[in-house]
Design goal:
It is a single chain. It contains two helices and 33 strands. The strands form nine sheets. Strands 3-33-32-31 form a four-stranded antiparallel β-sheet, with no helix packed on it. β1 and β2 form a beta hairpin. The radius of gyration is 28 Å and the shape is globular.
Length: about 400
């Protein structure tokens, strides 16, 4: 009897609730639009809108998770690499480049046969070049050719800015290297020749006003790096920086007044005037991978004194913010914002801003490269013969 009375109370309560809801939903209101009266029921309209929003959220949630295969062509030795470009990931190889979105779709493609491909991004621009001696270099925007640069020399490196300015380091006759700057229309606007050292890299500010050039200088059996910062408007060297016993891997302007230099055992930053802002020593830590793709964190893979692989995340003021110890070798990695992903034997591990590794995500094939999408929860993974976009939450 107690059970039946309880059920009866539930039924009565439900009927009262139903009657009250019906009364509320049946209330009407009048709205005038362009002089015409429209009668509507506010509560029914609100319920309908809530239902639409909930449905949209559910569809969005299910559409943004899971694994989506990516239609990239694969053949022997294609060797895809990845670059971040806004909300997309650029996958490039010796057959060209493609922009992949977080759902695994191809936004655009550039088809170009290259022997030794090099690619750089600046805003919505893609710079594609061949380092194997055929002198090809061109810029694209959303897959459309913008400029083809007539260099006529073997290319050492190249960069492009979000404003469309490009800089190339090439070899040349009579000197140990040449740096050439082009404006957004592809017109040559500045040339600098190196007489003292062999050029290894060059960087350029967004407006094309300043360039930085790294050179290998040898003397008395020693190999050093010299970095020169040049005002292209005045044609003057505004700073010269010497780093003894080091070889520069990359130069990058984070802003017009902040230059990052990655060498074989240091990561350093300088002002445009040559003042050192920080210096991260990697001596004795055997650095193997690094990433400057995030604007919030720079990342480097090192070894501790026990031989463990470490993924170290630094701020661009040179402070160590997080350190993640991997379960084995870190084969590839990428950063977005303050987080990162590490590719290990057990799978893909998402590393938090504090250096904590989440549960590994398994993939049923090898992983050669990885690129993180905005938010750091979706990634493009590329193997020897297949690729897909996956969730790495």
């Amino acid at each position: 009897m107690m059970k039946n009375r309880y059920i009866e109370r539930i039924k009565i309560g439900f009927m009262r609730f139903k009657d009250s809801v019906a009364a509320v939903l049946s209330k009407t209101a009048v709205m005038k639009i362009r002089g015409k009266k429209i009668v509507y029921r506010p509560m029914r309209l609100a319920v309908a809108l809530i239902a639409v929003f909930v449905l949209a959220a559910v569809v969005s949630m299910f559409g943004s998770v899971g694994t989506k295969s990516v239609d990239l062509a694969f053949e022997t030795d294609y060797g895809y690499k990845t670059l971040q470009s806004g909300s997309d990931i650029i996958a490039y190889c010796n057959r060209g480049a493609a922009a992949v979105n977080a759902k695994g779709g191809i936004e655009w493609k550039v088809e170009k046969e290259l022997s030794e491909p090099m690619a750089e991004v600046g805003g919505s621009y893609l710079l594609l070049a061949d380092l194997a001696g055929n002198h090809f270099a061109a810029s694209y925007k959303k897959g459309k050719l913008q400029n083809e640069y007539k260099l006529g020399r073997d290319i050492i490196s190249g960069k492009i800015t979000k404003s469309g300015y490009a800089v190339f380091a090439t070899d040349t006759d009579g000197y140990k290297g040449r740096v050439t700057v082009f404006n957004r229309r592809g017109k040559e606007i500045y040339v600098w020749n190196s007489g003292s050292g062999y050029i290894t890299d060059a960087a350029i500010t967004d407006n094309g006003r300043y360039i930085a050039v790294s050179q290998l200088v040898t003397a008395d059996g020693n190999t050093d790096t010299r970095i020169q910062i040049i005002d292209t408007g005045k044609g003057e060297t505004v700073a010269s920086i010497d780093r003894a016993g080091e070889v520069t891997a990359e130069l990058k302007f984070l802003s017009p007044n902040r230059l990052i230099a990655v060498t074989d055992n240091h990561i350093a930053a300088y002002s445009r005037g040559g003042k050192q802002l920080f210096d991260i020593s990697l001596s004795g830590k055997n650095p193997s991978l690094y990433s400057l793709s995030s604007r919030d964190r720079l990342a480097v893979v090192t070894l501790d004194n026990r031989g463990n692989n470490l993924l170290e995340l630094y701020s661009y003021s040179g402070k160590l913010k997080a350190c993640y110890t991997a379960s084995g070798d870190i084969r590839a990695m990428d950063t977005r914002g303050r987080t990162a992903v590490s590719v290990e034997q057990k799978g893909i591990v998402r590393v938090s801003a504090r250096g904590k590794g989440r549960s590994a995500v398994s993939v049923d094939h090898d992983i050669k490269n990885i690129g993180l999408f905005p938010g750091g929860k979706r990634a493009l993974v590329i193997g020897t013969s297949q690729s897909e976009c996956i969730s790495v939450r």
